[in-house]
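Incident log, structure service

09:12 report received: a user says their structure output differs between two submissions of the same chain.
09:20 pulled the input from the user's history:
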Amino acid sequence: LKHFYERYIKPTSLDLHLVDMSIFSGVPTILAVIRNPHTDLAPFAIGAASAHSIERACEKAAIEGMYTRTWVKTEQRLGNALVDVDYYRDINSFEDHIKLYAGTAIVKEADFLTASEKLVDVKDYAPFDDRSPDILWTNLVSHLSNQGYHVATFDLTSPDIKDAGAYVVKSIIPGYKPIDVLYRGRMLGGERILKHSYHLGLVDKPFKLEELNPIPHPFP
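09:34 re-ran on a clean worker, output below:
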C-alpha cells in the first residue's frame, strides 16, 4: 500500500484521505476522498471500493477517486459547474452530481467526511480468501447470509460479449440501498438507512427521515 501511494498518489501533490467503511457490511470497504489543497481547481472528489482485502480496497477506491477528480476538473474548466440549483429539478444524472461539486460552495458540506482523526491499522483486518473467484464468491455470499442477507445474481452477458470471453453480471442484495441518481427519487425506503447505524452502535438512536443529510451525494 505504501508503494502504491508513493508511486501513484504522492507525485500529484493531492491529499488522499481513506475512510474505513467496512463496519457497515463486514466486507473490506474504503471511501477515498481526494482534496486539492493548492488551488480551487477540482478541490474535491471521491471514490469507493470493496475488495477481498482492506489494502486492495484502498487502492481501488483511490484510483476511482483520482479518475473522478479528472472528470470534476473537466466539468469545472468547461464552465459546467452547477450553482444555485433546485435539487429536485436539476439533479437528474450522475453527471449532475459531479457538476454540483465542481469547485462550488457546496464542497464544504462534505468536510465531515474527513473530520475524524481516528486511525485504524490495516493489519487488524482479515482478508477474504481469494485463491479463486469461486472461493471468494462463496465466502462473500456466506458472510452476507450469516448477516441475514441473500444475494440474487443475474447473468446479463450478451452473445457477442460472451463470444469474446467476458461476462456481465448484476447482483442485488435485498435490504441494501442502491445509490440514487435523481434527487427526487432518493432511495429512502426500508429500514437499513434509518436503523443500521444504530444497530452497529454508531449512533444513540435510529434516524428519522427528516434527520438524514439532505445534500445530494458527490458520487459519479
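09:41 both user submissions now match this output. Likely a transient worker issue. Closing.
09:42 reviewer note: The longest helix spans residues 54-77. The chain has seven helices and five strands.
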